[in-house]
Write a structure and sequence with these properties.
Shape: globular
CATH class: Alpha Beta
Helix content: 10-25%
Number of strands: 10
Strand order of the largest sheet: 3-4-5-9-8-7-6
Number of helices: 3
Structural class: alpha+beta
CATH architecture: 3-Layer(aba) Sandwich
Distance between the termini: 33 Å
């Protein structure tokens, strides 16, 4: 019972907490792609030239939150256990705080889900991979950035999302 309450609350906080707004829209820094790897087995390409600030532990699961130097964008990379053996569809049904009608993008497959929407002036994108199906841990990313910069972020989000994988 506590897990459900805490998990749902944290997911709501993450999705509904916009970053401070900026009055300007400068171009993005050079991506300087690197691979993030952790002891839990998550690997993902990320633009280290953009996400230069380590913001500490994530509010959900185990992992790191990285932020842009100007604090307008954030990337969370994390893993969480799947003791309840949830499938991607079940995970979305039980953990998603925002109404499904507010999603601009939703893809749910056998081994992953990806969702995206807008809250305030921030676009958020979340993807979680279930590499062992419902039998293993869930590897996730969460990205938030200014909506007015969406076109600049499209290729970056795509690369991050497609590179998310567990260690082999």
């Amino acid at each position: 019972m506590m897990r459900e309450s805490v998990g749902t609350t944290l997911f709501a906080i993450v999705l509904l907490s916009p970053l401070p707004a900026s009055s300007e829209t400068p171009g993005l820094a050079a991506p300087d792609w690197k691979v993030y790897s952790d002891q839990a087995g998550t690997n993902v390409d990320y633009p280290a030239g953009i996400f230069t600030q380590d913001a500490g532990a994530v509010p959900r699961g185990e992992g790191r939150e990285l932020r842009s130097a100007d604090d307008r964008a954030r990337l969370m990379i994390y893993i969480e256990p799947n003791r309840e053996r949830r499938t991607p569809a079940r995970f979305i049904k039980t953990e998603m705080a925002a109404p499904r009608s507010e999603l601009e993008y939703r893809r749910i497959a056998d081994r992953f889900f990806a969702i995206s929407g807008v809250v305030g002036d921030q676009v958020y994108y979340s993807r979680c991979n279930f590499p062992s199906g419902a039998a293993g841990p869930i590897h996730c990313i969460y990205i938030a950035y200014p909506e007015k910069e969406k076109r600049m972020w499209d290729a970056i989000v795509t690369r991050i999302s497609r590179s998310l994988r567990p260690a082999h």
